[in-house]
Amino acid sequence: MNSNDSIYESFLHCLQQLSPQPDPEASTIVYTPTVNASAYTAVLESNIRNRRFNTASTPKPAIIITPTKYSHVQAAVICAKNLGVRILIRSGGHDYNGRSYVSHEKKFILIDMFNLHNVSVDIESETAVVETGAQLGELYYRIWEKSKTHGFPAGVCPTVGVGGHISGGGYGTMIRKYGLSVDHVTDARIVDANGRIMDRKSMGEDLFWAIRGGGGASFAVVLSYTVKIVPVPEVNTVFRVKKTVAENAVNLVWKWQSVAPSIDRDLFIRVMLMPETVNGRSTVQASFIGHFLGGSERLLQIMNNNFPELALKKEDCLEVSWVESVFYWANLDYKSPAELLLDRHSDDVNFLIRKSDYVQKPISISSWESIFNKLGELGKCGFLLNPYGGKMEEIPADATPCPHRAGNLFKIQYSMNWTENDPKLDEMYMNQTRDLFDFMTEYVSKNPRCAFLNYRDLDIGVMAGSGERGYNSGKVYGKKYFKENFHRLVKIKTEVDPDNFFRTEQSIPVLPGIKNSEGFLFSRI
Predict the structure, then answer these.
(1) Where does the FAD-binding PCMH-type domain lie (predicted)?
(2) What is the pLDDT of residues 135-189, one digit of tens each?
(3) Do residues 370 and 246 both lie within one domain?
(4) 220, 495 in Cβ contact below 8 A?
């Protein structure tokens, strides 16, 4: 019997022992590479969205458990802790850096939450309870079932997992109207490090604050979130206007950076900058992609008054319902049946790398020319520029762990995808993205250079060891994701999980220090 089989037998025995009555499901929701290898592989690969983390050398979990009820999650936490094996938690979304299912620790167990994906919507109270194994498409569909004039301010990809998206902040095309996804969370249910199920009242306001943007997997297994859904108009307008460098794209992007954060908050205009080859020459195309909460007539008035340079015309505009706007932004046929939102595996799986930045001061035209030239020189890595302003200017930086609010003009997502399965190409494309990231240093936020948690980026730091070393290394990336909120997150983590049971390469560290008579740790730093 190998070590995985030994862990499997011990874990399964513990799971059955903790069941209040004989549980016939216990053995059917636990997988290992040897006992039920084909099913194990199918479950593991079902929610991998970055092929860089699905190779022969990628560390694999010793066990995967796919809970179908909350007691399974409780038992999994207790049993893993008793066995001295750490756990990872996967909610079933994109996870750019694979931290929900890959670890460099010798043995680990994966809790895959995909079976816990129920969504319950109450239009009268304008609330929804969504389990963290659900994907955004499922949440959007359940809202659409009940109301055509409600939505939720979250991501544009229906296959993003609710658990990771909300616990890391979450944003979408309604960010300027309604703020982040996490700004609309009113309650949650979790399993803590001791295997207890808690809600907002029993976990307390500090822990509730932490799991709304601080990365839930640092503190607990989040079972569900209760969220406030928001009103949306019957008629929304979407558009996409593409401009080349020859069509004045550089000047348009320069103007966009000042207009987009201050324009009517019903309007969100993303800019996508992508290299392309035209007649054998490398150039960059700028796509201005808009979502307006209202009809095209009012949109055109706003654009003519504030951004006439883009020359948006009636024929560029498409009037749609809110759920149709979701399909449009997901690059799907906007007339697709709403049931397509329930398809958990509708997107392609590529090799990819993502990074992020925040821009707080307008970039000059000459600098934009340099940026366009750099994009063209690299030839594959692109930018997604997402405007802030509006509601984001009004929410205090410490309202949730997500501090990147007022003062940010826009956020950059560096985006590189490729399909070739070649380690040399992997390294080349990743280095191109890092090169572009380094090139942008002078234009973006400083002291610290900030990053967005949902675009996990191991290049900006990883936890190295425990104690003081773990804390100091955790502070490097922690300050970039959370700024001054990092200190409060560390204190909460130390109180609720002093043994650092819930941990990844970029989790919240515990304070190094000594325990008092009540068992609490106090920092010596």
Answers:
(1) 57-232
(2) 999 999 999 999 999 999 999 999 999 999 999 999 999 999 999 999 999 999 9
(3) yes
(4) no
The answer to whether residues 443 and 487 belong to one domain is no
Distances (CA, A) of 504 to 342, 354, 446, 465: 30, 18, 26, 11
* β-bridge mates for residue 236, sequence order: 320
467 membership: H or E segment, kind and range? helix 467-482
Last residue of a domain, one of 112, 137, 163: 112
pLDDT, tens digit (0-9, with 9 covering 90-100), for 387-402: 999 999 999 999 999 9
Identify whether 336 is part of a domain: no
Q: Identify whether 369 is part of a domain.
A: yes
Secondary structure letter of residue 161 according to DSSP: B
Of 428, 455, 482, the residue at which a domain comes to its end is: 455
> How far is residue 300's CA from residue 313's CA, in Å, rounded to a whole number?
7
Q: Which two tokens stand for residue 64?
A: 């995967």
CA–CA dist 483, 400 (Å, integer): 12
525: amino acid identity, one letter = I
Q: Are residues 105 and 33 located together in one domain of the fold?
A: yes
Residue 241 within a domain:
yes
- pTM of this prediction exceeds 0.70: yes
Q: How far is CA 62 from CA 3, 394, 477, in A?
A: 9, 46, 28
Tokens matching residue 252: 């348009």
The pLDDT score that the predictor gives to residue 99 is: 82
The total number of structural domains in the chain stands at 4
- Looking at the structure, tell me whether residues 194 and 135 fall in a common domain: yes
Which pLDDT tens digit goes with each residue over 259-276?
999 999 999 999 999 998
pLDDT of residue 3: 66
Residues 6+ apart with CB under 8 A from 484: 397, 398, 403
CB distance 372 to 249 below 8 Å: yes
Helix (H, G, I), strand (E, B) or coil at 245: helix
| Residues 268 and 221 occupy one common structural domain | no
> Is the Cβ–Cβ distance between 152 and 227 less than 8 Å?
yes
411 and 509: one domain? no
Q: How far apart are CA 493 and CA 453, in angstroms?
A: 17
Instruction: Return phi, psi of residue 287, to 5°.
Output: -110, 120
Instruction: Please give the residue that has the higher pLDDT: either 37 or 199.
Output: 199
Q: Which domain holds residue 65?
A: 3-112
Catalytic residues: 455
Do both 223 and 273 map to the same domain?
A: no
